[in-house]
Amino acid sequence: MDYIRSMSPRPPSRDAERLFRGQFLLLGLLVLAIGGNVWLIMAPSGSGGGPVGPLHDVGAEPRPVQASMGATSDEERTITAFNLARRSVVGISTGGLAAVRRNGQRVPIQIPKGTGSGFVWDAGGWIVTNWHVVKEGSLVRVTLAGGELREGVLVGASAQDDLAVIKIDPTGLDLVPLAVGTSHDLRIGQSVLAIGNPFGLDGSLSKGVISGLNRLIETDQKLRMEGVIQTDAAINPGNSGGALLDISGRLIGINTAIHSQTNGSSGVGFAVPVDLINRVVPQIIAGEMPVDAGRAVLGILMLDDSFLEGLGLEGVIVDAVLKGGGAEQAGFKKLNGFTGLKLGTGENSTFDRIIAIDGEAIRNADDLLDVLGQRKPGDQVQVTFVREGETQTVGVTLGSAR
C-alpha cells in the first residue's frame, strides 16, 4: 500500500495554488503593460494621457543665452590684478649634466632637474625666484608669459632667505616688472592671489587669504626661516618662486613652501615677505651675494676629434645640441646622418663645424675648452662655424655647468 500511495498523484497544495494565482496575475499585468505602450504609440495626438503633439521637432534650435549679471566688484578686482601681474610671472626650469657612454667614451648629456616659477624684477632682465628652485641646475631656462624661452644665468643668491636672481638677455623683449607692495602692514584675513606654474601649468591663479603672519618654519631644504607669511591659497609643486599678490596685484611675497603630507596643497602655504625681498634682491644684483656660476658652456656635445682628423679638417663637430642652451637659441643643429659619415669624404651627412670663437681659431676640442675657460656664464660670444660648405657667424649666450 505504501508503494501505491507514493506513486499516486496528490491533490495540489494551498501553496501551489497561491503560486499559480500569482503567476497568472503577473502575466495579466504584463499583457496590460504591453497593450498600454502600444496604445501610447498609436493613440492620436490629444487623445488624453499621452504626449500632446509629435515626439520630434525638426526645427529645434539652441535656447538663447541669458545675459550675465556681470562680475561682482571683488571678481573684477581679482581679474584686473591677475591680468596686470601675469605678464610679469615666468616659468623656471633647470637641468644638469650626467655622463653616459657613447662611442666608447663617457660624455655628458642633459637631465631635467625640476620646474618652478619666478617674476620680472625690472626691465634689465633680472628675474627673481627661490634659491631651492635653481640651486641644483647647471642650465636655467626662463619661459616668459608670451611663451618665449630664454637661457638664464644665476648671478647670486641668499640661501638663508631662499632667494635667487637670474639674468636673461633683455634684447628685443618687452619685460614688465611686477609692482611691489609692502608686507609690514599685512593683516590676517586679507585676500591674496598666488600666480605661478603648479605642475608645469603656466599662468595659474589661486586665491585665498592670509591665515598667519610672522611664522617660523623649517623647510625640507633644511632652511630655518622666520617672519614668513602663511596663506590658504592653493600652492603646489611648481608654484615655488611665484608671486603672492594683494588684491591690487602688488607683490607681497614669494611662494616658497607648503605644509603637506602628500606633497600637494593642503591649505597651508608659506611665502617670503616682500619687505625682505626688497632689501635682499638689490644686494644680489649689486654683486654682494654671488654664487659659483661654474664654467661657461655653449650647450653642445662634441664629436670626438678623430672624426675630423680622418676628414683632414680642423674644428669641432656639433654632435648634439642641449635643449634650452645658448647653442639651441642660436640655431645650431645636431649631427645628421652619423652612420653615413665616411672618413675622407663626409658624404651623406650634414653637420655644424665650429672653427672660431670671437675670432680665435678652434682647431680641436681642447682649443674650444681653453677659449670657454676664459669666459664666464652669461657672456656673449661670436661663434664662427661651417655648415654645408658655408661659413656663418652667430652670437651665443654662454650657459653654465657646475
Provide an overview of this structure.
By secondary structure, the chain is an alpha+beta fold. Among the domains are: 191-273, Trypsin-like serine proteases (Thrombin, subunit H, Beta Barrel); 295-401, Roll (Pdz3 Domain). It contains eight helices and 20 strands. It has helices at 2-7, 14-42, 73-85, 131-134, 274-285, 305-311, 326-330, 365-373; strands at residues 89-102, 105-122, 126-129, 139-143, 149-158, 163-167, 191-196, 204-218, 224-231, 243-246, 251-258, 269-273, 295-297, 300-302, 316-321, 352-357, 360-361, 380-387, 390-397, 399-401. Strands 1-2-3-6-5-4 form a six-stranded antiparallel β-barrel. Strands 7-8-9-12-11-10 form a six-stranded antiparallel beta barrel. β8 and β9 form a beta hairpin. The longest helix is centred in the N-terminal third of the chain and has 29 residues, at 14-42. It is flat and about 85 Å long. The model is unreliable at 1-12, 31-47, 97-112 and 338-348 (pLDDT under 50).
Q: What is the strand and helix layout of this fold?
A:
Blueprint: H1 2-7, H2 14-42, H3 73-85, E1 89-102, E2 105-122, E3 126-129, H4 131-134, E4 139-143, E5 149-158, E6 163-167, E7 191-196, E8 204-218, E9 224-231, E10 243-246, E11 251-258, E12 269-273, H5 274-285, E13 295-297, E14 300-302, H6 305-311, E15 316-321, H7 326-330, E16 352-357, E17 360-361, H8 365-373, E18 380-387, E19 390-397, E20 399-401
Antiparallel strand pairs: 1-2, 1-4, 2-3, 3-6, 4-5, 5-6, 7-8, 7-10, 8-9, 9-12, 10-11, 11-12, 13-20, 14-15, 15-16, 16-17, 16-18, 18-19
